[in-house]
Amino acid sequence: MSRLIAKFNSYYADKPVLTIMITNAILGGIADTVAQSLTAIRTKSRRSLRVGDDISDGIEMPEYNEKSFAKDFMAPNKKLPPPFDFERLTRFMSFGFIMSPAQFHWFAFLSRAFPITKESATVPAMKRVAFDQLIFAPMGMLRFTSN
Fold first, then answer.
1. What average pLDDT score do residues 82-110 get?
2. CA-to-CA distance for 122 and 130, rounded, in angstroms?
């Protein structure tokens, strides 16, 4: 783990914006993958068999000719969770990648405008959070939802 951190720090020292862009894209991809996986697990658990449900569809395999097999068996099953959405994953990763330069410069501005020192840490941190949530976050949300 320490080698990974050292490598990240060396890349960040050489090319900070590019490093943040790649990092945000990877983190966005991980976050969306986790979200889609949790949604699939939740959907599957909600659609699980209840007491008194007819289980004959899950036990017996009726005779299929080629046309009905393709139509009935290959059709989306309402009991299965939704398939993994790679297009959505790509959108999340792209958003993180594209927004990173603006975020990098925004946080650099906040660091200059509200420096954190040993004597004063809480008030500048609160000002950073307030400025970020009141100014940058609405613009980021507008950009995110306008895709």
1. 94
2. 12
